[in-house]
Each structure stands twice: as C-alpha cells, then as structure tokens.
Amino acid sequence: MPDWLLRAPAPSEAETLGRIGFDAWELSAFGDDDQGRADRTALLEEFVAFCRDQRDTMLIAELDGKPAGWGAREYLNEVVSDLWVAPWAQKRGVGAALLEALEIAIAKGGFAHAELETYAGNVGAVRFYMRQGYTPIWRGMKHSPSLNYALDKVRLRKPLLQAVQT
After folding, report:
1. How does DSSP classify residue 8?
2. Does residue 74 contact residue 57 with C-beta atoms inside 8 Å?
3. CB contact at 8 A, 50 and 82
4. What b-and-e string marks burial along 116-142, b requiring 16 or more CB atoms within 10 Å of the CB?
C-alpha cells in the first residue's frame, strides 16, 4: 500500500507547492534546455501565484506527511494543465496517482477524453504519459507566456471510456 494520499491544497501551502512546481521544472528537460532564457525568479513567483489563485483546480499528493506533487485542471475542462512531482518523490507512483485522480474528475465532468501538453524535449514525461495510455495528437511550436518564448510542444490525448463507465 502506498504511503501517500491525495487531497485538496491548503491556502497556506502556495509557497511550498509553487516551489515543488519550480523545482520539478528546473530539474526536467524544460530547465535543462532553457539555457538561462527564463527569468527564474519571475517563474517561481508565477508558480506560487498559480498555487495561491488556482487552489480550487488543484489536487495535492502528500508523501510521508508532506506535499510531494500536484496536478491541476486550470479551466476545469478535459485538459490537465499541470502535473508536477517534487524531484525527491519521483518514480514512487505519485504522478500516476495524481493523473488518474484528475482523469476520474474529468470523466465525472462528462468528458470522453483527457488531454495535456508537455515540452516535446521532455522525453521522460512524454514516455510517462504514453505509458499511462496517452497518444500524441499534435506537435508544434507554441509560445509559453511564463517563459516568454516558443517551445516545441506535444499534445496528448487519452480516451476515458472506462472511467466514464465506473
């Protein structure tokens, strides 16, 4: 049995959760390939602001009594807008559990599929999503307002028929 639980975020956790998102970004292929183009202080502030302002769209994974990752559906539609797992908690099932819970919420909202986007150069993330049943449906350059430059992005989709039927 896993030693993590899923829950809603507390208002006081915005700083901690924003740091988790930033640290996961910085240590991923996103951060590696950024080559200093992004204003890291501003990006951290954006992560914290998102976690403060979008709490109602977020789900937190807690591992060993502390936040280990979070996912969000910023517009409460079929799109998983964010999935960030603290580097120390990766490869422990946290991301898969968050993604599955978000997919169930999407299905309960009446949507037949889930979608998400990630940086195409983040091969580990793309591979993770494909193992979770996602299929690429689009790839191209897309401007990132947070980073203020265009990224090679891939959009993936997963049918949720099983989740809808349960």
Report:
1. P
2. yes
3. yes
4. bbbbbbbeebbebbeebebeeeeeeee
2: confidence class by pLDDT, cuts 50, 70, 90: low
Angle, CA 21 vertex, CA 60 and CA 128 arms, to 5°: 80
Q: Which domains does the chain have, with CATH numbers?
A: 4-165 (3.40.630.30)
CB 128 within 8 A of CB 154: no
Q: Are strands 113-119 and 149-159 parallel, antiparallel or unpaired?
A: antiparallel
- pLDDT tens per residue across span 103-128: 999 999 999 999 999 999 999 999 99
- φ, ψ for residue 71, nearest 5 deg: -130, 160
Count helices and strands in the chain by DSSP H and E runs: 6, 8
pLDDT digits (tens, 9 = 90+) for 4-60: 799 999 999 999 999 999 999 999 988 888 888 889 999 999 999 999 999 999 999
Give the whole-angstrom CA distance, residue 52 versus residue 133: 31
